[in-house]
Amino acid sequence: MSQTISSFLSEHLYDKKAIGALNKKWLSYGALRELKKDVNKALRKNGIAKQDRVAIVLPNGPTMAAAFVTIAQCTTTAPLNPNYREDEFSFYLDDLKAKALVVNDGYDGPAAAAAERLDIKIIRLIESNQIAGLFSLVGDGDKDFIEDEKVCENDVALILHTSGTTSRPKIVPLLQSNIAASASNIAQSLSLSSADRCLNVMPLFHIHGLIAAVSASLSVGASIWCSSGFNALSFFSNLDEAKPTWYTAVPTMHQAILARSGRNSEIIKNNPLRFLRSSSASLPAQVMRDLEEIFSAPVIEAYGMTEATHQMCCNLLDKQKPSSVGKPAGPSVRIAHEADDVLIDGTGEVVISGNNVTPGYENNIDANEKSFFEINGNRWFRTGDQGAFDEDGFLYLTGRLKEIINRGGEKISPLEVDSILLDHPEINQVVTFALPHPKLGEEVAAAVVLANNSKCDDKDIKSFAKERMADFKVPRHVVILDEIPKGATGKMQRIGMAEKLGLL
Asked: What CATH number corresponds to the domain at position 342?
C-alpha cells in the first residue's frame, strides 16, 4: 500500500483527468506531478524545509485542492478557514508556528494582516485562467534550491486544530502514512476506481473534504470536480456540468439539496449517481430515505473525526442501516469502558486503533494521557462518543461524552466561546452549550448573567461575538438569567443545559 501522497499519485497515467472546475480545462495527473516539482522548488527557494509549517488560506475550488495536494508532498500543510477574523488567524498562525502563509495574489485580508503582525513570510499564489488547479508560487526567497529533501511516510503532511474540552484547540498532526491509509480505506469502502468522479462541495480546510473527496479520489486515479463551495442554488447546475458518479456532504447540505430536488428532477435523471455519501454529523433516517428515493442511489453514511484522518466506520454499498454509522472501515473499532482502560461488550466509549490514527496531540501530554491507552500492544484512541454494535456489526452512536458542539459538522469548543463572551464588560458569567436543531443537529447557545444595572440584550451580545469569532461559532440563542443553574456539585453543567432551561 502507498505510504505517502507522492507514492499514490505516481501510479496514474499522465493524461488521466485529475482536477476539474467550471469553465476550465482539466488538470491531468501528469501536470499535477509536474506542478509538485515547481511547488517544491518555490518553497525551498523561500527557505521552507520539509519539517516547516505552511498555512494555506484560499477560497474553495480547484486551486485549493491542488495547493493542498502539492504542498503536502513537500512540507507540512495547515489549511485555515478563510472566514476567520484577524485575531483568530493570529492565534492559529502563532500556535502552529507557521513558517509561511500561502494566499492568493492581491489578497490583503485578515490572514495577511495577522501574518505581517507575526512576521510570517507571505507567499503569493497566482492561478491559471485556463487550467483548473494550475498555479505558481511567488515569494521573495533566494535560497539555494535543495532537490533531495525527500518527504517520508513518518513526516507530518497535515496539521489541523480540533476543538477540545478546554478553550484552547488541540493540534492534530497527521502523517503522510495517515493520509495514505485513510484515502485507501475510503476508496475501498466505496469501491472507488479510476472511472469515478467526485463533485466536491465540502470546504477544503476541513478533514472531510481534504481526505474523503480529494485524497481518496486521487489515490485511485479518479477525477474530482471542484465547486467554489456549497450553494444549494448552483448545486444542480454543477451536477449537470461535472457529471459525477458521487458526492460527499454533511447532513445540512443534503437537506438543502433535497429541498430543491423537485424542480431539478430532469438533471437528476440525466446524471445518475452511483451513490451519495454523508459524514461529519448524524443524518436523519427520513432524509436518507428521501435522498435514496429521489436519486435512485444508496446513501452511504460514514463516521469520522480529525484524529482518525476522517473515516472510522462506513455503511456498505449493498447494505445501509438508517441511524447507524456503519461497520469499521479501515481501523479497528471497539467499545471501551468509559473510565477504565479495558475493552468491553455492550454500550461504552467508541475507541479506534489503526494506521490512519494520529500519533497524538502536539505538546499536550494531558490530552494524550486521557485520549490514548494500550492493550496487548495495540494503541487505542478514545473518540468521546458513546455507542454500541448491533448483532450485524453495525455501530450505533448513543450519546456524546464530550461537551463539544457539533453544528452541522463544525466542531465548536464551548469554552472558547465562553472566553470570548467573558471579555464583554457587562457579562459576569456565561456558559455555552449545545441546543438541538432539526437541520444542523446542534446549534450554539449561551446562558449569561449580566453585571448589575446592565441594559445589554441578546442582540448586543451577538454583535459583540460576531466581531470576534467566525460566524459558525456565534451563539444563535442567548438566554439572559439572574443565575445559571448548577449541578449537585455546584458546577455549571453544559450537557443537559438546554433541558434545564426549558428550551427543548
From this structure: 2.30.38.10
